[in-house]
Amino acid sequence: MGFSGKFVHAINANGRVSIPSKFRENLKSVRSEDRIVLRKTSACVQAYPTEDWWKFFNALPTKTKSDRYAKRKISANSMEVEIDNNGRVLLPAEFRERFSSECVFLGMGDGLFEIWDSGAWQEVSSEEIDSEELSPEYGEFEL
Q: How many Cβ atoms sit within 10 Å of the Cβ of residue 105?
């Protein structure tokens, strides 16, 4: 079972936001977790179930100096957060500075969902997709 769909939620004045109930159900039924890992990217915040995050993170190589530096940057932009009894997470202050009072949750399949500022998501979602660059597997979908 993975994360799918788009959900719009308000961020309260303290920086708390409710995780969509379908995502919470997935987290509870499949992984029985009350924590997730948030990772700040240049476009959005990615959210991973804790177990999936550690599998991903621990599999990253550290063979070269650049590998180790990249892994440090990924770690520095990631934070484990608790899901409270109401199904909300507190977005860390340094993560929420990009958000207005509303965000969009996007399911990205197994082990990942994204949290976008609603304005940033509107901008990105209105961009045209270059069908020549698109992998053939997307051919059956209307985009």
A: 22
